[in-house]
Amino acid sequence: LGFTGSLAEISVAAVHPSFCRFVQQVAAINALEPLMRSLTDTQLAEQTLRFRDILAGNSHRIQDALNDILPEAFATVREASRRVLGMRHFDSQLVGGMVLHEGQIAEMATGEGKTLVAVLAAYLNALPGTLTNPPSLLPSSS
Q1: How many CB atoms lie within 10 A of CB 57?
Q2: How would you classify residue 113: left for phi > 0, otherwise alpha for psi between -120 and 50, otherwise beta?
Q3: Cβ(130)–Cβ(59) below 8 Å
């Protein structure tokens, strides 16, 4: 599957069953890379407006809608990072962003790109215009 970063070293049999879903999502994100690279800076920025329109039409199922647009949103962030910072997210960092989006903890060592990982989940979860915390991490209001 052409993984880059530390994903190439992971034994699929030794990981959580969610890993197979993450692998599929990474493949979808990678498939979008040529399209994202072909967009102008303006077109890339307009992706955010398009995502917000999609989410506005799906406000009754916002979490499902976020999951649906995740590959495109992550591909958009990856391309913006490449252009602005000169840093392209590795596949393992994309998985880390998915883990954070699901409200789980992603443990990473120094130098593995925690900031790049956090931006993926923060961007996706900020699109609805609400808090960036995944719903599962919000305190209950009692």
Answers
A1: 9
A2: left
A3: no
**Rg value, the chain, Cα:** 15
d(C-alpha 73, C-alpha 68), whole Å: 9
Cα 11 from chain centre: 22
Distance CA 19, CA 121 (A): 17
Q: What is the pTM of this model?
A: 0.80
Distance CA 99, CA 93 (A): 10
Q: How far apart are CA 101 and CA 58, in angstroms?
A: 18
Residues 38-57 have pLDDT tens digits of: 999 999 999 999 999 999 98
Pick 134 or 121 by higher pLDDT. 121
Scanning the chain, the segments in alpha helix (DSSP H) are 18-38, 41-56, 62-85, 91-101, 114-126
Identity of the amino acid at 134? P
Please tell me the predicted confidence (pLDDT) of residue 55: 93
